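chain below, 400 aa
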Amino acid sequence: MLGMMFSGTASGYARALSGQLMALAPAPLVEAAAPAEAEAHTVTLSVLEGLVPARADLLWLLIFVPLVAAAYIWAARQRRRAMASLGNPALVGKLIAGVHRGNRLAAAVLTVLASLCVVLGLARLQYGGVARIVPASGLDVVLVVDYSKSMLAQDVYPSRSERVAAELRRFLDRAENQGDRVGLVVFAGAARGLPVTRDARLLKLYLQKADPRFENPGGTAIGKALRLALQYLREARQQEGEDAAALEDASEAAQVIILLTDGEDTTSKPTEAAEEAARLGVRIYTVGIGSVSGEPIQKFDERGEPAGYQTDNDGNYVMTRVDEGLLKQLSSTTGGEYVHVDPQHFGLDKVGEWLSTLSRAQREDTVEIHRDEGFAFVVLPGLLLLSVSLALGERRRRKA
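prediction:
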């Protein structure tokens, strides 16, 4: 319920949010959530009545809990039938006199409860947390990040890739506060990524897993990356309900691509992708990472350890340098800008200043809930119950 979208003015959002949170938070906290124009506000949800499963799609696994109980009941009936078929009840009674029926029943109950806890753990129970109002306006931004091996060059301290990571973290924090939706494309010889979203945590997690040393295939396919970014932006427009004509003619689309790369690409036709972006009204801002003079490209072994430098057929070192001409052409084609990263300045800070002058799309405010994970509170007891059930013996201890 807390995750639904509200429409109306800023004051209308505050009233709607207050109504939804009344049962979960004290009144002073709810009143503090009344937002001013174009600002994000949070409300702390500190009580456990807000317990919800993050993976509600896995709750169907609860069907296994009664199945486990039914299996124990069926096994007990089968044992009784087997003993009845043996014949002499008195003799059978003596044979099973050492069986501890209480332990057997307790083990069954504990196992059923353990299976319930494990399923609830898989559903990732969450509680409390913070409710945040996301502003009604924002840009659609796709970050296109070069993770080819040339980005491991150290002509920018401490390396090109580490400098990019620092820039991206700062940019994502700012975009989240402004209500921008951000997508991500990581590329070397191929491109992959995530569509536009307001979940900056997901984007940061995705970036943590990216490493130029292990990106395959090698190369710098800027054109492929730009086409994937345009695909994400088209999908974002479709989600907004824009018609087909608007998709192909949108000079005020409030959508941009930010390309961070050393700009060396001669195979994937990036200029054609830029022309397509210009037709769609998408601006490309380019950020050049590295030196103009050049830096040798490192080699790495299968474990990601440095293994010298790449050389050509004549034994000369292969150099990587910023292709400023290409990057300026991509940005000018779409009405964007180019900035070169140097040791003293963050390139994305300058891009952020440019983006602040663009018209922003008018959308409905949303309420995002950032909850605390509570799966450990059911998984750990479940494992404990299962351990106890396995430790219970079915035989009575013999008296000394």
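The longest strand covers residues 125-134. Confidence is low (pLDDT under 50) at residues 1-40, 242-252.
thats it, cya
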